[in-house]
Design brief:
By secondary structure, the chain is mainly alpha-helical. Helix content is 48%, strand content 6%. The chain is globular, with a radius of gyration of 12 Å. The protein starts with 6 loop residues before the first strand and ends with a helix.
Length: 69
């Protein structure tokens, strides 16, 4: 699975903002929620179109990208 399996960037969807694939939920929303001390479960509850599996994979890939730099 590559990043295009997780995230969509399309100028016709929220002006090209990266969103979770198959949704209109910006990926940044996940980081905003976590930054404000919400749990992953609370994020999923607020955005049920994003699966826990996909959210976790985005977090894992983000961590790997940061640690590889």
């Amino acid at each position: 699975m590559n990043s295009t399996d997780l995230i969509t960037v399309d100028p016709d969807i929220l002006g090209g903002t990266p969103v979770f694939k198959g949704t209109r939920v910006p990926v940044k929303s996940l980081f905003d929620y976590l930054e404000k001390d919400y749990t992953l479960e609370e994020f999923i509850e607020c955005f049920p179109s994003v699966s826990k599996e996909i959210a976790c994979q985005v977090l894992e890939r983000s961590e790997a990208a940061l640690l590889a730099a």
